[in-house]
Amino acid sequence: MDTQLADLLLTPAEMTAVDAAAASSGIDSFGLMLRAGAGVAAAFLRHYPSARRAVVLCGPGNNGGDGYVAARCLADSGVAVALFHLGDAARLTGDAARARSHWSGVGAPIEDYRPADGDVVIDALFGAGLTRAVPEAVGAVIGRIADAGLPVLAVDLPSGNDGRTGMVLGAAFSAARTITFMTRKPGHLLMPGRELSGVLEVLDIGIPARIVRGQASGTLAENRPDAWRRWLPSSEQETHKYKRGHLVVFSGEKGKTGAARMSAMSGLKAGAGLVTIVSPDDAMAENATHLTAVMLHGIDGDAELSDWLKDDRLRSFVLGPGFGAGQKARGFVAALSRRHLVLDADGITSFRDDPNALFSLFAEGETRLVLTPHEGEFSRLFPDIAADPSLGKADKALAAAARANAAIVYKGPDTVIASPHGRALINTNAPIWLATAGSGDVLAGIVGALMAQGLPAFEAAAAGVYLHGEAGSRAGKGLTAEDLVSHVLPL
Predict the structure, then answer these.
(1) CATH 3.40.1190.20, domain 225-486, yes or no
(2) What family does the Swiss-Prot or TrEMBL record give for this protein (predicted)?
(3) What is the pTM (predicted TM-score) of this model?
């Protein structure tokens, strides 16, 4: 399998277009189904050699056709097979009907299936193309199989999981393994689809790469270094601290300074040449006690900030971690509206009553703003987008990015990074133990440091999320934010 092809993400609609283009080019579509079904059977034999019975659940479309082929291959290999179909199997058409005609065994309505010890279930009901809630009968079977704790091998995508959004459509199988064909779908990476898919295997069934690539829009992809590597600064022997950029992080008031220091230290570790913490006067001594490599500058109000910003070398800023929400934050953001800014935490919350006041500040020109909301903060800035049940997480992030003219880092176990120009990346390298207090402060500092080094906002956000995930993996389980900072490395 072409690993680069396997790394693509195609939506179900794009994959349907691939199938149509393959058929138009003269490729036998039934031959593709035979390879798909045989691949599913091979995976069953490889991973479940001790199964007492293969239970194949066949749906009313081509996913069901794959199931009929797999059932025949398994029976020919001596495996006990029980096949159950959804709806009237006699009404199948096209390749699925042809696959059923090659199955010599009997079948029964899906409602008749009752789990038994030793069963391994092959889910060939719907796959990635489902767009509506599963029928009641399927939901009942999903529940019985889950209660019995039986392993499920899903064909293409666990039935009930939306291949475009990863969302559950009424009910969905939780598969131990999933076999998909040619490329992955967004639903394999977006939650909860990522967890429901179990171990994912991409099977090459013989569609030429040129056909697959020809239907890939490239709008949505996995967050991998290839997406942003060309923007990374080159390693030059004659570099110096100013070439590597100056990052500024704003501190909160006395007693609330730790978050800013974690952002600042992360920025320094991520490669910024200089890092300065801007501190209110009442917190200067507290910050000075804890800082060595990070510089410190005292500013209390808008006038002092505006005067300091006359220095054109000050290009990239982080505001929000521990800063406090309110008018002071809004005023500082307004002063920074022509610079590159990572707005996090309290900085985001400061605009919850009037998000458009924030968006208008950055509406013109290049993308200079990176927003890093978690679920709650996203809902405060984009309440209508967050509440739209027809949108998946990537859809929401893209809509938010376009509205704000910002790079959006929509945080979570399936963090999505979106550009206002219609690109989105799904991050997959972050371990679950990154969900700890202060982790977001570290991320903000990393992204700010990358912008200080010259990366555009979207690429800095994507690279920063990836670097953050790598640091979390190095730090290991039980990490604290302080541990995470110490494991940040430059790209």
Answers:
(1) yes
(2) Belongs to the NnrE/AIBP family.
(3) 0.94
